[in-house]
Amino acid sequence: MAGSKSIPFLILFSISFAFSQIRVVTNSTPQAIVVIADNPSATAKFAAQELVDHIALATGITLRVIPESNQQEDPFSRLYIGETKAAAKQGIDAKRLPRETFIMRSVGNDLFILGNESDADPLDPRNPDVGTLFGVYEFLENFVNVRWLWPGKLGTFVPRASTIEIPAVKQLEQPALFFRHMRNHGHVMDENSLDARLGFSPSVAQQYHEALDFLYRRHRMGGLDAMPATGHNKIDWRKYGQTHPEWFVLTSEGRRGNPKPGREDPQVSLCVTNEELQDFIIDQWDGKSTLVVGPEDSPGRCLCEKCRAWDAPQPETPPWFATLMYTDEDTDVFYGQTSDRYARFWKVIQEKAAKINPDVLVSVSYLYENEFTAPVADIRLGKNFFGEFVQWRDPHLRYFPMPDAAFEWIKEQWLGWKRTGIRMAYRPNYLHDGYVLPHFETRQSGEFFKFAYEQGMEGTDFDMNTGQWAVQGLRLYMHLRLHSDPELEIETIRQEYFQAFGPAAKSVEKYFDYWEKYAIENTLNFIQNMEVRRYAKYPLEVHEAFPPEVFVPATALLERALKEAQSSPLSEFAERVKFLQIGLQHALLTIELAAIHDGQKEVPQNRLNDAKGALRNLVQFRKDHEHLFFSDLYHVTSYWEGRCWDMDYFDGL
Ligand SMILES: [Zn+2]
Question: Looking at residue 183, what is its pLDDT?
């Protein structure tokens, strides 16, 4: 547990530092007032409220919020939140701070927290004027030990304290990553849709997303206005295929067009060595904005001689865990890794564009599919290029946990791309995995996040947070925490999460260890026995991947945890264990229905009554517990179940 700090779960304890200078609350007596400007910004008002609310949860005391020219009282400490005349008088100026940055500084017995602020919505992830708010969250995390585990009240762990006193501070901080994003499913659904009847009620979905916005901001997610534009190839085959077939790939069958026979996609990969096409791309560009030249969103690249001449020599035998990075699984055609070809293409595009605008940013968008491996040739791209690292295609390296050899290999690819000098972000898809099951891991994924950060990652765009808080919450919490502090040790973060279960912390740790071990031990089984596209097809195979007997020890661990948690007079610890139990029960009910479908979209006629019964139980369970936000049920029904199962038999239930 190197570097970790232990947080006692005592019912009442003091957060008091040697040489305390600022007193917030002492022995359950308020010692401070919160001071804001007479005309505070939306950021400052919101930040002050967040501060007061969390201190009240910790101490039971609600501090008063006072406009600065209206101060009658003489408290021990004043907590100035946001820009104030008092801060200006002390020479503390937030005006020239970089985006999302704050100053936290004590002067005598008073504390100043201020940074960028405005009247824009503080919860909008594209709003960079939130320095003051980020300062308050830093304060709450470091001095009040607040932990935001999952969306909603139960997921907010605030240790009780009778005293909050802090030492002199002087801190100036900006987020370690410029942009920090975990995508999530939308929440706008029709009242009468099957989704609304099988999963989230529309109003609860709305509440869930509001709670999620808070959770994300408290973890300082956002900065999305600083994320460069990305996108796949936009040259439309339907528009240009007739007049310029030579702009598009030469297929293994010797024709130009879609390498997947029978597919009518408008998007077809390009013959990137075609100079007329290169000039056309420049002609289409407005000369100012980011020039987006992402590759196609599926494997298959041009097989013409000129394009292949730009490639590096291909391995005779690709690594055993990466064969699908080289050969298309649907057509068995070997395309190889075409990173050298594309890096050269991107460079040609940048050189042509630089004649119009020398500062052009070329967004290569995705280091992905056939361009995942680092270029072999010594090719220099530099800071006018931006790309997002996406491990994908081969199931051995799509998901965590992955075989150790694959783990080392993807790190090498990151380092190789970094050597080209390109600006890099991380855009993985592995959080899609796991359906509603306790299928997750924290070790490799956490380690890779930290590795990428140390090796130049400037931001993230995770696709996506599926919201399975009750079964995969440890993994999601770890990802949120790493976004605000990538230098934290994984073990420290894990212990923070377990502490929120009070006297049950140890048993809850064992519970999560049990499932993580199951995922690690079955890494290859999952790959061999489940669909390559398992992230979307999970409901078809879940009953085989998670047979009922594996739930027995896990259920027992949670029963023990519940007894331990109930020994505390604070009910929140037991409530959190029950939250985990709800996730597990939900998984079991879902598996029951999956087993009846048994890999089929349609339920066999002779099992229709069983299916109706299982679905009725599942839906009832969801409706009974949806308000706890144990699962983003809209994601569950629309993304997974709706794609895999035909549940029209719900009509008439
Ligand atoms: Zn070509």
Answer: 98
Which residues make up the CATH 3.30.379.10 domain(s) of the chain? 13-174
Ligand 1 mean position to 346 CA, how many Å? 15
Are the beta carbons of 50 and 155 closer than 8 angstroms?
no
Under a CB-based contact definition with an 8 Å cutoff, are residues 202 and 626 in contact? no
- Which tokens is 534 given? 């398992």
Q: Look at residues 481, 379, 368, 483 and name the one whose alpha carbon lies nearest to residue 414.
A: 368
- Three-state SS at 25: strand
Q: Distance, CA 252 to ligand 1 centroid (Å)?
A: 12
Residue 25 main-chain phi, psi, to 5 deg:
-140, 135
CA of 295 to the centre of ligand 1 (A): 14
Residue 7: its pLDDT value, please? 40
Residues 141-168 pLDDT 10s: 999 999 999 999 999 999 999 999 999 9
* Domain 13-174 CATH superfamily: Chitobiase/beta-hexosaminidase domain 2-like (3.30.379.10)
Task: Report which of residues 264 and 505 the model is more confident about.
Answer: 505
Summary mean pLDDT of the chain: 95
| Distance from the alpha carbon of residue 417 to the mean position of ligand 1, in angstroms | 23
CA of 247 to the centre of ligand 1 (A): 8
Q: Is the pLDDT of residue 629 over 90?
A: yes
